[in-house]
Amino acid sequence: MADCTVSFQPHNKAVTVRKGTTLLEAALKANITINNLCGGDGICGRCKMIIKKGNIPEEVSGKLTREEITRGYVLACLTQVMENLVVEIPPETLAREKIVDDEDADRFKEFGQLAQAGDEFVFSPIVKKIYLDLDSPTLDNNTADQQRVCEAVHREIGSGATQMGLKIIRNLPAILRGNNYKVTATVGFRRDIAEIMNIEPGNTAGKNYMIVIDIGTTTIVAHLVDANRIRTIAAKACFNSQGIYGSEVTSRIISAEKRGIVELQKLLISDINGLIRGLAKEDRINLKDITAVVCAGNTVMSHFLLGLPTRYIRRKPYTPTSVDPPPFRAVEVGIQINPRGLLYSLPGISGWVGSDITAGILATNIIDRDGISLLVDIGTNGEIIVGNREWLVACSASAGPALEGANVTCGIRAETGAIEKVYIKNRKIQYKTIGFVPPKGFCGSGIIDLVSVLFNMGIIDRRGRFLDGLDEGVQELNGQKVYLLVDRKKSGHGNHVFISESDIENVITAKAAIFAAMKILLARLDMSFDDVSHFYIAGAFGNHIDIESAISIGLIPNIDRNKIIFAGNTSVKGAKLAAYFQHAFNRVAQIRAKTTYYDLMGADDYVEEFRKAMFLPHTDIELFKGEKVWQKA
Amino acid sequence: MADCTVSFQPHNKAVTVRKGTTLLEAALKANITINNLCGGDGICGRCKMIIKKGNIPEEVSGKLTREEITRGYVLACLTQVMENLVVEIPPETLAREKIVDDEDADRFKEFGQLAQAGDEFVFSPIVKKIYLDLDSPTLDNNTADQQRVCEAVHREIGSGATQMGLKIIRNLPAILRGNNYKVTATVGFRRDIAEIMNIEPGNTAGKNYMIVIDIGTTTIVAHLVDANRIRTIAAKACFNSQGIYGSEVTSRIISAEKRGIVELQKLLISDINGLIRGLAKEDRINLKDITAVVCAGNTVMSHFLLGLPTRYIRRKPYTPTSVDPPPFRAVEVGIQINPRGLLYSLPGISGWVGSDITAGILATNIIDRDGISLLVDIGTNGEIIVGNREWLVACSASAGPALEGANVTCGIRAETGAIEKVYIKNRKIQYKTIGFVPPKGFCGSGIIDLVSVLFNMGIIDRRGRFLDGLDEGVQELNGQKVYLLVDRKKSGHGNHVFISESDIENVITAKAAIFAAMKILLARLDMSFDDVSHFYIAGAFGNHIDIESAISIGLIPNIDRNKIIFAGNTSVKGAKLAAYFQHAFNRVAQIRAKTTYYDLMGADDYVEEFRKAMFLPHTDIELFKGEKVWQKA
Questions:
Q1: Exposure pattern of A541-554 as b/e (b: 16+ CB <10 Å)?
Q2: Which of A408, A491, B18, B299 could form a disulfide with B354 if both were Cys (CB 3.0 to 4.6 A apart)?
Q3: Contact by Cβ (8 Å): A238, A271
Q4: Mean pLDDT score of chain A
Q5: Facing residues of A293 across strands?
Q6: Which residues of A touch B164 (CB under 8 A)?
Q7: Are A226 and A233 in contact (CB under 8 A)?
Q8: Contacts of B177 in chain A (CB under 8 A)
Q9: For position B109, what pLDDT does the model report?
């Protein structure tokens, strides 16, 4: 097959590809990260490019406007390269700049209090820098260098086995004598083992940082934290670049089987490095002072992080390679922090209940609470955990990324310019953006609000279809019915901000999957929502979701509001707990032992429940009718 | 400075060196290992070479015969290269082939019984291969691969933290599924930590071997042992090739400061690899089935093994880099066994009391015995330990390698052809060689015997000088007085086998250093030899030494023979104990805590005691006079 050259503008990057390659793949080959969430199925319509020179096969996508088509726009994922091309990539197609979730840092200030509540949680970060002002050897005390250091470290940390690498030991005589026996030891912990992973000249103990990461299928959230005290310095998030290979974990696994795990691992590591670099740069922290990365995520993401084979997770009997990997040196997977820094991957439970869930259980502490708790973690997969001190049952439902602002035409991450709130004021639909700037799209909470508002105002019916003539916002755009919330003239990027019927369908599908899963899981336990004493809602959007909107679309049941606790991103919170408290890290073993996985695929009635939930708020409208239940009767 | 080319025959190897380089250094650069024990001081006379082409500066060594000088012989260490040369290396100058100490294997058969005596010593080798016939995953049991393996291993080994490398984990899905879940795990232990260091297809548990090594300054002894049961398969020994840089640890340290530690490490590792290869080849054992190397040695040798800086050991306050390094992968220092095999270096006590001594204390078990024990380990350094259940005091005296068959003109290792016994029969001096072949030189026990015999027959005086005309064996050879034991016509290599006055002086110096050390150490403890209940003699020659010869030259005191125990090479025995019994390995911590080091250099009276002992058997002849003490009075 012949090769063609594709030149990308404004990057001025050219790549040679085989005839028949898609433009999207060509851009990937040119190392240009572009917005694409549907995995190349031509559905999300985000990978728009403009053909400047050369011909392409005729294939017109409904995702493009007539005007765009006239101007040479194509969807990169649907466009095959058949001859040499010059292609322009418009700014909105390029992967969004990774924007700080400034608010996340604020949100996690409460974390300090939360952690200190449990008195058994003694501050014991997973990496510790210890300043050692050692005695110089004398004839009466000529203990060997390594033992001198180890004994001093032991005095600080208590007993337990100590490890030390050969290079560190070899360098000890020079570093001790060159610094008058004043050095700083970086110690990494794992259960009973302490590794003296680095020895630095002088006192650097004041500068010790960790990165805590929630690796979501759609969204990656990274927090920069101080290892010396409970303090979140900053947070950043980005979409997971693996999105180019599909929005669901299954399509990622299939891609890994075709392209090799390393290909998907690279994208993830590159995202993580980008977040870390960004956090370090803004806060003027030297990468070498970051000594640990603590990650939580679903099991497939945890596998990609370490480059572990994923193929058997999606095949019966769904066996992961590891759910409790030991810590490795971060550099072993290409993460750029201190070259001797450690990478901890929090232990998960099974192929479909990952460390994001054990982290969630840690963060909500439901194994220490009276009564029955239910934790629903809303992400690309919705995970539900029900349990108490004695037992925990978990299940997982594929929801899709709509509630994270993906798989929705104008969906974006919860970043500056995202509509995070939609409400009715003076009988008109109003909205609020993050940062109070002109809107660029909806984040998850905005989407839930908008669907709720449209339904409550009777603009859409119970199946999410637009009812004509009721509101001037309902328009026809590019051949599909949409509700136009923001005209392009008022938006932040010059494009309309709207929601389409298929967007609404994605939202309904997501909420139905999650609601049905909760119902089935409770039913198996001979319980109803009324038996739940603590109802935790977790997810990347966490604190922003409007509870009444969520109830009115049927995402969560109409229960006593006092029972509902917004737990935020419990994956990051739990990982942070594990990073700060070794006791918390070790507690995961307890959580694993108590947790049973319930496979919804084996539930005959799940599909039926799901179908019932495919209405707003539900076929069984009684479930959501009546006054708001402010107090349980 | 100009360069010259030196071509070595019969190797046909040429090297380019700077003008002024010695021939010895040139040979080293050409990677030709030659006999040299004095470290290039022109003393040992072993580095003879023949100049075939080219001129050399005039410098004639007394170590060469007139005939040799006529034939073009030179000492390589004293000969500077000033122009291009062609040089022949005679066979006797080349480093001796490493010959098996077949007898060592026999000697260690008793080890099994010894170890089994202590009932707390449960067989628990430091590396273990465990065959795992795992259940295939099912929907009811879809435990992750790593956890499946770890749990099965834990069932076999009990609790404790488990480690596993990233590469091993990545390869698990393929190796488990490719072998029907039947695999063999190799587990390495260190205190409470177990590392699953390898997973092999099928059942290979039957093939698991360890190498146990005593790294002496002069001699390296390696034993190949079965990790599945207490069985020494074979033993080999060689001279330490670092001898080229001097016979004492101090000169090695100085060389390391000049040439870099790596240079000396390389020689040691190359010797070790040679021994391992030889052992494996003869016993048809695959190197990959050797999963651990356990080493004991003096602290300087242990440092060279790992490439740790040695410079501060010889400077006040004599601080080593490490006396208790963790295990590393053997490949990290270049030892060729299984690529994931571990290298254990037994813990020592201080710069001058190494793991050969902790091993000796382990092997003799003096911390568990009633009464006072004295252990003297006769090597290039003579170490003495006195103690009981409560305390141990150790000291170290520089003896030189004479008693190991080095620093003696015709001294060789205890190998086939070595005169190991000299005795009087029918009023004539007789000898016996190892292997009953024509003699090639003396090993340590033969030298002690010969000096004893010469003294007892009045052929030498109390200062070790030949008394003329008393025996026809006393002759003048190459300008020095010698006792000719074997004429070249009867020897195994066509050269005379003799002992010179300076050889005898080396022997007297060695025994004097050791005897004085014992006396001083006991004096400091307000004790005499009579207070010692168990007198252990250890060393590479161990079982072969004749006790009466040793007493008659004043190496050991004239005490109750029932108290004397030949313990053999306790360094290897102790290391083997540690290899087979984790409890024994851990016991070294106890030994360290109980042991005090006494520095003879700080003893004002040591030099005086040493001088007194520089006579045969001693100035205080009363100490060694009278009937043999068969029973303590």
A1: bbbbbbeebbbbbb
A2: B299
A3: yes
A4: 88
A5: A211, A343
A6: 325-326
A7: yes
A8: 312
A9: 44
Give the N- to C-terminal CA distance of chain A in Å, as an integer.
Answer: 72
Yes or no, beta carbons of A166 and B316 under 8 Å apart? no
**Token pair 């430091």: residue:** B126
pLDDT greater than 50 at residue A632: no
pLDDT tens digit sequence for B491-534: 998 999 999 999 999 999 999 999 999 999 999 999 999 999 99
Pairing of strands A85-88, A48-53: antiparallel
**CB-based contact B317 A142, cutoff 8 Å:** yes
Give me the mean pLDDT over the B449-477 stretch. 90
Distance from CA of A177 to the nearest CA of B (A): 10
> Do B139 and A599 lie within an 8 Å CB cutoff?
yes
In angstroms, what CA-CA distances link A601 with A61, A67, A511, A513, A523?
34, 45, 18, 12, 15
- Give the global pTM: 0.80
How many degrees, rounded to 5, is the angle at CA B339 between CA B115 and CA B152?
Answer: 65
* Structure tokens belonging to residue A415: 């970043």
pLDDT, tens digit, 9 for 90 and up, residues B370-405: 899 999 999 888 999 999 999 999 999 988 888 888
The reported pLDDT for the residue numbered A21 is 87
Task: Tell which residue, A558, A564, A507, has the closest CA to residue A534.
Answer: A564
Domains of chain A: 3-93 (3.10.20.30), 126-201 (3.10.20.880), 364-401+507-624 (3.30.420), 410-501 (no CATH)
Whole-angstrom distance, CA of residue B64 vs CA of residue B77: 13
High-pLDDT (> 70) share of chain A, %: 91
Output the six-digit token pair for B146: 């790593």
CB-based contact A142 B191, cutoff 8 Å: no
**pLDDT of the residue at A372:** 97
Residue A146 at interface with chain B, using a CB cutoff of 8 Å:
yes
Residue A433 tokens read as 């953006």
In eight-state DSSP terms, residue B450 is H
- Give the span between the Cα atoms of B544 and B521, in whole angstroms: 26
Tell me whether A172 touches chain B (CB under 8 Å): yes
Q: What are B195's strand-pairing partners? A: B163, B188
> Contact at 8 Å (CB) between B56 and B76?
no
* Best mutation target, B136, B146, B597, to test chain A (most A CBs within 10 A): B146
Tokens representing B319? 């601080």
Inform me whether the C-beta atom of residue A579 falls under 8 Å from chain B C-beta atoms: no
Joined together, the tokens standing for residue B418 give 């070595």
d(CA A204, CA A410): 47
Segment A419-428 shows an average pLDDT of: 90
**Across the interface, which of B309, B317, B325 has its CB nearest the CB of A137?**
B317
> Which of A 16-35 lie inside 8 A of B, CB atoms?
none
- Going by pLDDT thresholds of 50, 70 and 90, the confidence category of residue B633 is very low
A167, closest residue in chain B (CA to CA):
B308
Nearest residue in A to B172, CA atom: A321
Residues 6 or more apart from A388 whose CB is under 8 A from it? A366, A367, A369, A370, A371, A372, A373
Angle made by CA atoms A495, A499, A500, in degrees to the nearest 5: 110
pLDDT at site B628: 52
pLDDT of residue A97: 38
Find the CB nearest A321 among B145, B193, B320.
Answer: B145
Question: Among A346-350, B247-251, B334-338, B468-472, where is mean pLDDT lowest?
Answer: B468-472
Shortest CA distance from B195: residue in chain A: A326
**pLDDT tens by residue, A538-559:** 986 645 788 899 999 999 999 9
**Omega within 30 of 0 (cis) for the link into B91:** no
Q: What φ, ψ does residue B386 adopt, rounded to 5°?
A: -125, 135
ipTM of the complex model: 0.80
At which residue do the structure tokens 């400047």 appear? A52
Residue whose tokens read 């005095």 = A155
